[in-house]
């Protein structure tokens, strides 16, 4: 008797987009169905200031490569920050429309590298919707069963977009996400300051069964409610200070696919 092979039905990647143009075909050939690109601005100067990299053209080229290939699941993730890029909401919606993708606006979170975060910089979901409504008119909530963190909305011309209200209305109670860093740290929450060192278990020769047991038991014991706990704080400051961030690079969101 042949045992059924477990099948992965929905493979996705999240990327900063810099290598996307050159890797798009290989990713597609490898069976990746969905790609999410972080894109906080359409202004090259602003991009440089935000990312400290001069890679705006490569990122746009990567997104265009995905469009040309007709990849069905393109998403663009934008963290909206007051006074930084909140004047680009409509431009980003139109860019996503041209690229055949869906944009998701994410409330600015006090995680990792956001060492200068303040609540004043958070543009809340209600305000994002108000601004989009002022420009486009009627907005409908898309009602769907999904474990995705974004609520999706539809404009009157059928274009859809998403909002992730991670700061003002966190969804920790229904969260089913964890993150694995490139060097094997398994983190159960975006706010986690430490994770399980799976690489160590692999190098110690743990069997797949042992690893599965460890992962299952850690996941079953998971009580993480990072964003909800932060919401209860009265005097909310950035979570991580610069010095600590330098000493522990794992705290940076880009190392954990935040
Ligand atoms: S803060 Fe942590 S528990 Fe809450 S939604 Fe984010 S990853 Fe999940």
Structural class: alpha/beta
Strand order of the largest sheet: 1-2-3-4-7-6-5
Average pLDDT number: 90
CATH architectural category of the largest domain: Alpha-Beta Barrel
Helix content: 25-40%
Outline type: globular
The CATH first-level class of the largest domain comes to Alpha Beta
Which value, in Å, is the CA radius of gyration?
Answer: 19 Å
In short:
This protein is of the alpha/beta class.
Which helices and strands occur, and which strands form pairs?
Blueprint: E1 12-15, H1 20-29, E2 34-38, H2 44-51, H3 56-68, E3 73-80, H4 89-99, E4 102-107, H5 125-136, E5 139-141, E6 151-155, E7 160-164, E8 179-180, E9 185-187, E10 196-197, H6 198-203, H7 208-220, H8 226-231, H9 242-247
Parallel strand pairs: 1-2, 2-3, 3-4, 4-7
Antiparallel strand pairs: 5-6, 6-7, 8-9, 9-10
Helix pairs in contact: 1-3
Iron/sulfur cluster is lined by residues 170-172, 175, 177, 189-191, 224-227.
